[in-house]
């Protein structure tokens, strides 16, 4: 099945750092080549989301369900950083009690519609897989997959915060004019991770609503992996970037 080829490709990128036999770029190319040629006649983009629905029952306090008048427009995997700041002029002693302040996030959005339409269980495994994968490796992989499958670009959008601190989701990289400046409707702590090897906690799950934009009315950030701030500013730089990944579901 076509969705099953996506996970091996992600694993290739995720394990590049562990390949000690070849330099990094050569290791990626060598690992990718035997998979790439299998994708020639497969299209893994633009799958229907008509029968796909979001599951919100994994958290103790469930997020509100999507509004009934909306339909699912995109399912994406976001990979980027959650950003925080610490006071640069604080003493070392005071930093032990000061918590980092959230200053926004930045992420690349990868098309996950085919995975969502084929296997939600597989989709939910991927954020933990890619949260520590170098973003350059993922972007390179997505470009090659799109070329090899005659698909549209699998990098479909970007997420960032504007100068007023408002979260923006822009799907322009998909060729769409859809975008949203969002505001938080609800938040729920992420479920406890089964992995004991993580260096930080997972950022909360969110439901976001529409402030302005086009084509998107509600956004969910769910199945998050990493991204939470250090507990205090002790030993931290003034600006902190914490790697994370998540599923993003867009309704309009």
UniProtKB/TrEMBL annotation:
It comes from the Eukaryota. Pfam families: DUF3455. InterPro entries: DUF3455. Residues 1-18 form the signal peptide. PANTHER family: CONSERVED FUNGAL PROTEIN (AFU_ORTHOLOGUE AFUA_1G14230), MALATE DEHYDROGENASE (AFU_ORTHOLOGUE AFUA_2G13800). Coiled coil: none annotated. It comes from Penicillium fimorum. This is Malate dehydrogenase.
């Amino acid at each position: 099945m076509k969705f099953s080829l996506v996970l091996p490709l992600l694993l290739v990128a995720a394990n590049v750092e562990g390949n000690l036999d070849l330099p990094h770029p050569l290791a990626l190319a060598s690992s990718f080549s035997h998979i790439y040629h299998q994708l020639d006649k497969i299209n893994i983009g633009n799958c229907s989301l008509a029968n796909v629905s979001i599951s919100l029952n994994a958290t103790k306090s469930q997020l509100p369900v999507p509004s009934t008048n909306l339909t699912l427009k995109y399912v994406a995997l976001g990979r980027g950083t959650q950003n925080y700041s610490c006071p640069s002029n604080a003493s070392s002693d005071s930093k032990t009690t000061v918590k980092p302040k959230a200053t926004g996030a930045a992420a690349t959005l990868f098309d996950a519609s085919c995975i969502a339409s084929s296997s939600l269980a597989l989709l939910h495994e991927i954020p933990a897989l890619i949260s520590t994968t170098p973003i350059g490796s993922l972007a390179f992989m997505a470009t090659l997959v799109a070329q090899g499958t005659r698909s549209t670009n699998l990098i479909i959008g970007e997420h960032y915060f504007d100068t007023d601190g408002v979260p923006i989701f822009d799907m322009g990289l998909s060729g769409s004019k859809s975008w949203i400046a969002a505001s938080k409707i609800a938040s729920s702590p992420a479920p406890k991770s089964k992995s004991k090897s993580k260096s930080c906690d997972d950022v909360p799950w969110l439901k976001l609503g529409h402030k302005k934009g086009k084509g998107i009315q509600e956004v969910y950030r769910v199945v998050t992996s990493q991204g939470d701030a250090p507990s205090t500013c002790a030993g931290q730089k003034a600006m902190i970037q914490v790697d994370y990944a998540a599923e993003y579901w867009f309704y309009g």
